[in-house]
TrEMBL record:
Pfam families tied to this protein: OAD_gamma (PF04277)
Organism: Alkalibacter saccharofermentans DSM 14828
UniProt protein name: Sodium pump decarboxylases, gamma subunit
GO biological process, one term: sodium ion export across plasma membrane
Key words of the record: Cell membrane, Membrane, Transmembrane, Transmembrane helix
Leader sequence residues: none
Annotated localization: Cell membrane
Single GO term (MF): sodium ion transmembrane transporter activity
InterPro entries on file: Na_pump_deCOase
Predominant localisation class: membrane
A Gene Ontology cellular-component term: plasma membrane
Annotated transmembrane regions: 12-36
Amino acid sequence: MDIQNFELLDGVQLSIFAMLVVFLILVLLQFIIYAFKYLPKEQAAKSSGTVKKAVSEASSAPDEEEMVAMLVASIMAKDEYKGDVVIKSVKRIS
């Protein structure tokens, strides 16, 4: 393929090749994205859902200070116990 003698057929071949490369990359990305659901989920993702559920179960309408206290307590307990934490009640100790 010479630049001086570039014909319509050469352009069509080049275009088809470029489109095939793009579609092959898209199919490869599709398989990679599909494989993400088989990867193990992180522990942090599970514990954040448990914290949200525990906060909603603790009381129907907690004020902002209680919410912050519950979240901080669950974060501290998660580090210590290495597992899911459920908060059942909140008491002020100061």
